[in-house]
Design goal:
- The protein is an alpha/beta fold.
- It has two domains: 221 residues, Rossmann fold; 67 residues, 2-Layer Sandwich (Alpha-Beta Plaits), CATH 3.30.70.
- The chain is 35% helix and 28% strand.
- Helix 3 runs parallel beside helix 5.
- The radius of gyration is 24 Å and the shape is elongated.
- This is ABC-2 type transport system ATP-binding protein.
- One of its GO terms (molecular function) is ATP binding.
- Keywords: ATP-binding, Nucleotide-binding, Transport.
């Protein structure tokens, strides 16, 4: 699969020395959904703004479809659609006119069939003659996406597209994104909702303090970094882990009715067989066994925590 966006050693510094981006390099594959995860202030919006030409990088380079965003700005920008975080729409404008206007901004000829396709794709066709002010928050988000797609871009940036919407609308938006991918659009999604990345992304990137900590296929990331927990539920209640069972990978549940064993799914041996034998030797009786996979959220938190520890160690040095 070819790369449609190539970002090389991108840096952005502001007056006073603050570094919003610290040498970010990232290749985005054509036709994929890439989720960029990071806490507020991590650099997600700065990265998107730089690629879209809203912010100028201090150094580094970006190409979109082979076009440099500085030396070949018009060609690069014509391939990009951007859906910002904020809903900034003309409240008294009709939906269809708002989308037509966005198409015209890119010098595209009038094409009612193309506008109809976009509006139908986003379930907005029956709202085409409504004024923006008459729409719900979720529908306004869809109008933002329609405006971003009006000039037929090949790359769509969604900056926190479900921020501030309820769970039902969020899942509805996930369906919209999946349909756009099926239509051949490459999608870069920034979010701090872990379940969003887990639900729809092909790859996940983690950004913290202006640095891209990793980018991996979502399933590979889960398998590589995820740990499993085995909950050994007991018929008796314990006040502490028996001395014969104590280890760094075993802890007692809060209510004292289960032993929680953490193990690496990549290891040749999980140690579960030995654990169960030792539990029996300790005179404990099993009631049930339950396994649980680490979530992407836990992996993300651990990565950011590790980054903070590394940064702290470097500062101390």
């Amino acid at each position: 699969m070819s790369n449609i966006v190539e970002i090389t050693n991108l840096k952005k510094s502001y007056k006073g020395g603050f570094e919003a981006l610290k040498g970010v390099s990232l290749n985005i594959r054509e036709g994929e959904i890439l989720a960029l995860l990071g806490p507020n202030g991590a650099g997600k919006t700065t990265l998107i703004s730089t690629v879209c030409g809203i912010t100028t990088a201090t150094s580094g380079s970006v190409t979109v479809g082979g076009h440099d965003i500085l030396s070949d700005y018009r060609a690069a920008r014509s391939m990009i659609g951007l859906v910002p975080q904020e809903i900034n729409l003309e409240p008294f404008e009709k939906v269809i006119n708002s989308v037509r206007f966005s198409r015209g901004l890119f010098g595209k000829p009038s094409d009612d069939a193309a506008i109809e396709h976009v509006l139908r794709q986003l379930s907005l066709w029956d709202k085409k003659d409504n004024q923006i002010r008459e729409l719900s928050g979720g529908m306004k988000r869809r109008v933002l996406i329609a405006k971003a797609l009006a000039h037929d871009p090949r790359v769509l940036f969604l900056d926190e597209p479900t921020a501030g919407v309820d769970v039902e609308l969020r899942k509805d938006m996930w369906d919209v994104v999946a349909n756009l991918k099926a239509d051949g659009v490459t999608i870069i999604l920034t979010t701090h909702y872990i379940e969003e990345a887990e639900a729809i992304a092909d790859r996940v990137g983690v950004i913290a303090k202006g640095e891209l900590m990793l980018v991996e296929d979502k399933d590979t990331l889960m398998a590589r970094m995820g740990q499993k927990e085995l909950e050994v539920q007991l018929t008796q209640t314990l006040s502490e882990v028996p001395e014969s069972l104590r280890s760094d990978t075993l802890r007692l549940s809060d209510d004292g009715t289960a032993l929680i064993y953490t193990y690496d799914t990549r290891a040749e041996r999980t140690g579960i067989t030995k654990l169960l034998a030792n539990v029996a030797k300790a005179g404990l009786t099993l009631r049930d066994l339950v396994t649980r996979q680490s979530s992407l959220e836990e992996i993300f938190v651990n990565l950011v925590h590790e980054g903070d520890e590394t940064s702290g160690a470097e500062d101390a040095a």
